[in-house]
Design brief:
disordered N terminus, 332 residues, elongated, two-stranded antiparallel ribbon
Length: 332
Amino acid sequence: MESKESQRQSHPSAKLRLPSILNDAKSPQQQIKCLRRLQSIASENATNKRCMESSGAVEFLVSFVSYYDSTAAEEPLHNEFESIKPTDEALSILYNLQLSEAALKNLMGKNGDFVVSLTRVMQRGSYESRAYAVLLLKSMLEIADPMQLISLRPELFVELIQVLYDQISQQASKATLQLLVSICPWGRNKIKAAEAGAVPVLIDLLLDSSERRACEMILTVLDAVCGCAEGRSELLRHGAGLAIVSKKILRISQVASERAVRILLSISKFCATTNVLQEMLQLGVVAKLCLVLQVDCGFKAKERAREVLKLHAGVWKNSPCIPSNLLSSYPA
């Protein structure tokens, strides 16, 4: 059996291996070989990942993404067993390196160019590349400064919504929702999300979802997007919008109920046409808000439900659409 010392000698440190690996990557075939070796080194241990950050490997990997050709599909390189796309490989390694905050800030600091490159990959890349692009973006935008978040381009929102629509993977959808939760409150981002078609996609996801965390995130993004006129208009345009938001109240969690009631408050304040108020009655939204006042569901949800009911008491208070046991809790 080999001693630990001989094992150590047979695996020279990443610091020694990396320069020659990166220097060898001249032809496309050598580049794939190099990417595979980098993947192997990164998977060995955390120390190797940090070595890769300081050796120029990150810049090498970024170059594959930055020079991704958006005008034509990337040519896969074929070997005996499989087709390999360099961008897929590079993005996979970049994400799995679990880059330090300093490295992520460096990626964000390239005048937003790398975010544009990732957006381009999301437009034309394979499902795998698009998923890794979202996961890497999430890590980057978590450490971005406010100006960088405010300056995000509309094209990025279009691609994020498309990832949700395509349901590439559970992990990609979750990362996309988390990303939208964090970026929508900044600047005009809620408008960019609404114009990218977020609302109908989120409503359709909500119709199909009963998992607590997913519902909470969808309702949180929907709440943010309904903070602008475009978002509210899209919610009302969707045949199931008001109904599914109301349905989730008291069925998922306190957080979900609070977000859903907030959405209904936005609609009640800014979109209270005769038709909308009648629809809220007929769909049982008003009755559900009365129920919120009767059960234990958190102070914020109760206060907002009370506010909605008071706003339109003149139209709703004596309606036969509200069951008498719920009508008794209608606020004075």
